[in-house]
Amino acid sequence: MLKFWFRFVVMILAFVGLVYLGKSAFKSWGGADGHATVVSSHSILVLDLQGVILNGQQFLDNLKEYREQSKVKAIFINVNSPGGAVGPSQEIYAELKRTREEFKKPIVCFTSGLMASGGYYTSLACDKIVVAPGALIGSIGVIMSFANLEKLYDWAKITRYSVTSGKFKDSGAEYRSMRDDEKKLFQDMIDEVYQQFKSAVRDSRPQIKKEVLDEYTDGRIFTGAKAVEMGFADIVGTEDQAIALAAEMGSLKKDHYDLFEVPRKKKSIWDLGEEEEQDTINGHIFGDRSTHFLEKSLKKVLGTELLNQPVYMMPGVWL
């Protein structure tokens, strides 16, 4: 009996080893895990920036991979985002700007829905911003949300406290009210990050008059038509018109170019034993075994994913 189980375990280990060897070989042949090749020598790379920006790694990976290909002559980005975390929004902005300046690839952003806060921040790096007349644009500002659950803990007869190395270490904790010096600390941080946002608008949109910039960078939303009128966007148009503009800027003749969309990875037998990847734009994580279902559900219901951090986020967005 012992020999039988020993042989059984050896067979299982051998099978798993063969699967991973096969997967590695499949990748090297350009299989499901590898990047697709841009076939046409006159291509526009199409990227989507959709949802709340919590982690833009997949977007950035795709951008960095395909901007280096000589067959890609221009980039078109379809934006529909209320914003998100400050860091990822700034990183996407920086890499889009680098793509234009270093790799000489023209970029056109378009939205028929939402291009707000961090979604707008990232779009500032594009050569042209094309918007539908009724799209929602702007929300230029920073927000930082907190939750005070003191009364809830009192009702549940729970007492929470922390032992810290300094008086600001537990600032923003949900189990107590915030002190005045803590409010000032966070306000100073918000003001600093807000000036970073405003500077990006000023640098990318020098045609906007100072008085207009000062008045409309207060977090308000305006329509696409109004955004173009004030200089926050370039053209009122459709998606087809935005793509045609990208083709023109990439010196591509009308009807003589292809749109290349990055293929989404599909699960296969070669992915046996691996966890699902993150959807790194809207932040939903599938197959995350480290987080309990109840905890994830509570975060979803209470909208706490972005609590206690400065975000470029359109207020009122329900995560």
Characterization of the model:
The chain is an alpha/beta fold and 319 residues long. It has a domain at 43-140 and 201-264 and 276-313: Alpha-Beta Complex (2-enoyl-CoA Hydratase, Chain A, domain 1), CATH 3.90.226. Helices cover 39% and strands 15% of the residues. The protein contains ten helices and eleven strands. The chain has helices at 2-28, 57-67, 86-101, 118-123, 150-155, 180-204, 210-216, 224-230, 239-249, 293-302, and strands at residues 43-50, 72-80, 83-85, 107-111, 114-116, 128-131, 136-138, 221-223, 235-236, 258-261, 311-313. The strands form three sheets. A six-stranded parallel beta sheet has the order 9-6-4-2-1-10, with helices on both faces. Strands 5-7-8 form a three-stranded mixed beta sheet. Strands 3-11 form a two-stranded antiparallel ribbon. α2 (57-67) links the parallel β1 and β2 (72-80). α2 (57-67) runs parallel beside α3. The chain is globular and about 70 Å long.
